[in-house]
Amino acid sequence: MNYRNQKYLEWAKSRRCLVSGKKAEVAHHVRSKDNSSGVGLRPSDYRVLPLLHSYHTTGRYAVHRMGSLSFYVRFKIDPDQAILTLLKDYLEEVQGVQFSFPQGLAVRELIPLFEEKIESLRTIKEIEAEKLREERKRAVFRKSKKFGENTKAALKLKALKDKSNKEMAAKAKEFKKGKVPTEAVIELQRNIKEQRKKIYREQRDLLKEYRKKQKELSSLSKEHQEFKEKVKKEQSKRRKAAYLKSKEWAKSLAN
Predict the structure, then answer these.
(1) How confident is the model at residue 63, as a pLDDT?
(2) What is the domain extent for residue 197?
(3) Cα dihedral sign for 186, 188, 194, 199?
(4) What is the mean pLDDT of each run of 10 residues along the chain (255 residues)?
């Protein structure tokens, strides 16, 4: 199951990095063959490893640079065992539960049991809130993606990629024949990278503008509602005043 548990993620981040032993900065989601997460989907929040940013994405020996298998071999990490240890510690430290699991099972078979146990201890309110948070994230991502695809910057970037791919292919052919020196190829790559960065910046700026406009529109709608309410209150006051006046006038006529 693709469980989502922000509380567990935050707790995992507070643990020590498996490589350096320092306080972790990020929870790396472990993808394995038996994971139920599909392609492009994040694995369960219970299948994470606490790491520093340098060992996650930014550093030379980051897991997302080296590849998970190379990373685990280099730093002698058994991901399944590490995940199971974290789940045990979480149950004991946070939930205060000693979970007795069946003996003779493999580590990979035990992990789902621990996941189910933690989920069973959560309230329905927590689970619903987690689902809502996830849906909101997806909605924001879809909007930004949809907007980004239709911008001039995105189209320009696509055209540049096509052009650069053709240029690089031509240069590669020439390079194989021994016509083009390596420096020329490197320079071409640099130019392409710079152009791409420029277009990415443009795209980012367009997205920022789009979000600003959305905020402005939402604030305008709030102001409009407030104005409507003010008008309603004023109208009700006038009606009351007119009603009281008519009552007084009726009394004066009766006298």
Answers:
(1) 92
(2) 153-249
(3) negative
(4) 85 93 92 59 88 90 89 91 92 84 82 88 82 75 56 66 71 64 70 78 78 70 73 82 78 68
Q: Could you tell me if 8 and 127 are in contact, meaning their C-beta atoms sit under 8 angstroms apart?
A: no
Query: 44 near 115, Cβ under 8 Å?
Result: yes
Same domain, 20 and 81: yes
What was the pLDDT predicted at 166?
Answer: 73
Residue pair 11/90 in contact by the 8 Å Cβ criterion: yes
Residue 159 tokens, joined: 């055209």
Q: Are 35 and 44 in contact (CB under 8 A)?
A: yes
Give me the number of domains the chain comprises: 2
pTM flag (> 0.90):
no
Residue 112 and residue 33 share a domain: yes
In which element (H, E) is residue 48 found?
strand 48-51
Distances in Å between the Cα of 224 and the Cα atoms of 211, 215, 221 are: 20, 14, 5
Residues 202 and 163 occupy one common structural domain: yes
238 in any annotated domain = yes
Residue 177, domain member (yes or no): yes
